[in-house]
Amino acid sequence: MKISFTINGIKRECNVNSTTRLLDLIRDDLNLTGTKEGCGKGECGACTVIMNDKIVASCLVLAYEADGAEIVTIEGLSDKNILHPIQEAYIETGAVQCGFCTPGFILATKKLLDEIPNPTEEEIKIGLSGNICRCTGYQKIIDAVKLSATKIAEYKRGEKVDTK
Ligand code: FES
Ligand code: FES
Question: How many domains are there within the chain?
Fold first, then answer.
């Protein structure tokens, strides 16, 4: 069946069958390989994308459910070669080791900070509870979210260039 949707601000049309997962559509058909497959069953968050303003595990969503949807993947965050402040914060705090989990964590962080611009540590833990990292031990990721909040506030106050 043919579906149409917007991904990272670009309108796309694709043919999918009834069992194609959104994750496969994103990675295989659209070649947006920043979205990762870890567990394939909704437990690790590596496949996280934002769909219609909600965080979803793309391994659990069928592609046809994306018909008419607005989707953001990790590739949609940076502005050409300029990293999003959340991406900068993850690098600066050392919250990235192997990097496999990072796209999912960054999108979960974006959604969290869109809703709670200055979250407490507890709110950060809850906001990122759908994502698993095997490398970092999580403290640096929590630090990255706090630094992201600071950076985004600076951008909004006009102390740095505008961001999404
Ligand atoms: S691959 Fe989707 S949640 Fe793990
Ligand atoms: S940095 Fe390796 S799994 Fe998170």
Answer: 2
Instruction: With a cut of 60, say whether residue 2 has pLDDT above it.
Output: yes
Spacing, Cα 19 to ligand 1 middle (Å): 16
Domain around 58: 2-76
| pTM higher than 0.90 | yes
Q: What is the pLDDT of residue 24?
A: 98
Which ligand gives the minimal distance to the CA of 103?
2
Among candidate residues 50, 76, 102, the one where a domain is terminated: 76
Concatenate the DSSP letters of all residues of the chain into one string.
-EEEEEETTEEEEEE--TT-BHHHIIIIIS--TTS--SSSSSSS-TTEEEETTEEEETTSSBGGGGTT-EEE-GGGTSBTTBPPHHHHHHHHTT--SS-SSHHHHHHHHHHHHHH-SS--HHHHHHHTTT---SSS-SHHHHHHHHHHHHHHHHHHTTSS----
109 in the same domain as 57: no
Q: Give me ligand 2 centre to Cα 111, in Å.
A: 20
| CATH number of 49's domain | 3.10.20.30
